[in-house]
UniProtKB/TrEMBL annotation:
GO molecular function: ornithine decarboxylase activity
PANTHER family in the record: ARGININE/DIAMINOPIMELATE/ORNITHINE DECARBOXYLASE (PTHR11482), ORNITHINE DECARBOXYLASE 1-RELATED (PTHR11482:SF6)
Cofactor(s) needed: pyridoxal 5'-phosphate
A single cellular component GO annotation: cytoplasm
EC number from the UniProt entry: 4.1.1.17
Protein's name in the database: ornithine decarboxylase
Stretches assigned to the Orn/DAP/Arg decarboxylase 2 N-terminal domain: 35-261
Pfam families: Orn_Arg_deC_N, Orn_DAP_Arg_deC
Modified residues (N6-(pyridoxal phosphate)lysine): K48
Catalytic activity, reaction form: L-ornithine + H(+) = putrescine + CO2
Claim: Lyase is one of the keywords in the record: yes
Coiled coil region boundaries: none
Length: 397
C-alpha cells in the first residue's frame, strides 16, 4: 500500500490505467471518535457497509469495541481481526450452523430475531444456552430514508407481544432493535420508531435491557445534505429517556454508512467521451453499484494539475463492462472540457461502494493507496460539511 499526500498526487505519480482505491484512515478515526464521544450510548459498527480489516482496526483503535455482523463470514473476519471485540449477530434470519459456530467457536452471545421460529432455532443451535442477549427486531417505517429496509425484516405490531414474552423467557438480556432505513434524512425517523418501541413494550409488559436504534445515520452526498448528527443523537436520547424501561436499559446504535462513507474514494480514468457521456473504468460491477441501480449521486472532482476554466456541465457515466446496465445517470458535475485520459476522483465510496465490487468481465481494482488529504465531504468538519465543488482542487495544498 502506497502513501501519498493527496488524490491529485496519486493521479500524477501513478497515472493509473485501472481504478485506484484511496483510503483515509484519519477520516474513519474521526467518525469513530465522534460516535464514541457524542452518541449517548454504545455504538456498534455494522460491518457489511465496509468489511475492510484495516478499517475495522482503525475503528477499534478509536474506541469502537462492538461489531454488528450479519453472516458467519463476517463473524470469522472480525473475530480473526479483533480477537477482543464483542460481536453481535444482528441478521434476523440465520443459518442454524452459523448460529452454532458463532456461539460455540467465536463466543457470540448477542443475536437478533423477528419470529418465534428464529428464537427456537437460536435455542436449538446454542443447546438452550442461558447466557444469551436476544434482540427482537420490530418493523418501523422507512419514510425518512433514502433506502428502505422496511419490507424484509421486523415483527409487526400485532406479533411483538407474543414474541417479546417468549424471548424474555429464553434470554438473559432482552433487547428491542429496529432499522429506520439507510441514509435517514431526518432525526424524526428515530423519534417515530422509538414510539413503536414504546407501544411494543407497553403491550407486552416486559422489562427490556437493551434498546438498539440500529443504523441509518446519514452521510453527505450531492443533493443529500442532512442535519447535524448531534440533532439525531438528541432526538434519540429524548425518545429513549421517555421510555418506561430507560432507567434499567442500555442504549445502542449500529451505524454502518456514517462510520465508513468518508473512508474511501476512487480514482477513475475517462477512456472515451461521447457528448455528455463519459466512459470510465469503474462502474455498476465495481464500486458504483448504488450509482447505477438506485441513481445515487456521489461527489466528483476532476484531477488536473492546472484547474479547468471551463463551465461545469452534467455528465452521465458508462462503466467498463460490456453491459448496458453498467450506466450511472448522475448527473455528475464536471468541467465541460473533460476528455479522454482525464482522471476523476469519485468520493464518499467507503460505505456500500468499495464493499460491493465484483471482478465481472475482468475489471477490478487492486491498487489501494493511503492519502492524507480530506475526504470530498465530511459530516464531522463544519468547514467541509457540503461536498467540495467539482474541480475546485484544493487537495494537495
Ligand atoms: C445495514 C445494517 C446496519 C447499518 O445501516 P447503515 O444505514 O449503513 O447505518 C445496521 N444494522 C443492521 C441490522 C443492518 O442490516
Amino acid at each position: 500500500m502506497y502513501e501519498h499526500p493527496s488524490a491529485l498526487g496519486v493521479a500524477i505519480a501513478l497515472k493509473p490505467a485501472a481504478p485506484v482505491t484511496l483510503i483515509r484512515p484519519q477520516a474513519a478515526a474521526r467518525a469513530a471518535r465522534f460516535f464514541v464521544e457524542k452518541f449517548p450510548g454504545r455504538s456498534l459498527y455494522a460491518v457489511k457497509a465496509n468489511p475492510s480489516p484495516d478499517l475495522i482496526r482503525t475503528l477499534w483503535d478509536n474506541g469502537i469495541t462492538h461489531y454488528d455482523v450479519a453472516s458467519i463470514v463476517e463473524v470469522r473476519l472480525v473475530a480473526a481481526t479483533l480477537p477482543d471485540a464483542k460481536l453481535c449477530f444482528m441478521h434476523p434470519v440465520k443459518a442454524e450452523e452459523a448460529i452454532a459456530e458463532a456461539y460455540h467457536v467465536h463466543g457470540v452471545r448477542t443475536f437478533s430475531l423477528d419470529t418465534i421460529d428464529e428464537l427456537e432455532k437460536i435455542m436449538r443451535a446454542t443447546g438452550n444456552a442461558t447466557d444469551l442477549e436476544l434482540c427482537v427486531r420490530i418493523r418501523v417505517s422507512s419514510d425518512y430514508s433514502e433506502l428502505s429496509l422496511a419490507s424484509k425484516f421486523g415483527a409487526e405490531l400485532g406479533e411483538t407481544k407474543e414474541l417479546l414474552m417468549a424471548t424474555r423467557q429464553a434470554a438473559d438480556a432482552l433487547g428491542i432493535c429496529f432499522h429506520v432505513g439507510s441514509q435517514a434524512m431526518s432525526p424524526h425517523a428515530y423519534t417515530q420508531a422509538i414510539e413503536r418501541v414504546r407501544a411494543a413494550i407497553v403491550d407486552a409488559a416486559v422489562t427490556v435491557d437493551i434498546i438498539d436504534v440500529g443504523g441509518g445515520f446519514p452521510s453527505v452526498y450531492p443533493g443529500m445534505e442532512p442535519p447535524a448528527l448531534e440533532l439525531y443523537f438528541d432526538a434519540i436520547y429524548r425518545g429513549f429517556e421517555s421510555l418506561p424501561v430507560s432507567y434499567s436499559s442500555e442504549l445502542w446504535c449500529e451505524p454502518g454508512r456514517a462510520l465508513s462513507a468518508e473512508y474511501s474514494s476512487l480514482i477513475v480514468r475517462v477512456e472515451r467521451r461521447r457528448g455528455d457521456e463519459l466512459y470510465i473504468n469503474d462502474g455498476a460491477y465495481g464500486a458504483l453499484f448504488d450509482a447505477a441501480h438506485i441513481g445515487w449521486r456521489f461527489p466528483v472532482t476532476l484531477l488536473r494539475t492546472v484547474d479547468s476554466k471551463a463551465d461545469m456541465k452534467g455528465f452521465s457515466f458508462y462503466g467498463p463492462t460490456c453491459d448496458d446496465m453498467d450506466h450511472m445517470v448522475g448527473p455528475f458535475m464536471l468541467p465541460a472540457d473533460i476528455d479522454v485520459g482525464d482522471y476523476i476522483e469519485i468520493g464518499m465510496l467507503g460505505a456500500y461502494g468499495c464493499a460491493m465490487r465484483t471482478g465481472f468481465n475482468g475489471f477490478s481494482s487492486e491498487t489501494v493507496v493511503t492519502v492524507d488529504d480530506e475526504p470530498m465531504a465530511s459530516l464531522y468538519r463544519q468547514d467541509i460539511a457540503a461536498p467540495r465543488r467539482a474541480n475546485v482542487v484544493n487537495i494537495g495544498q
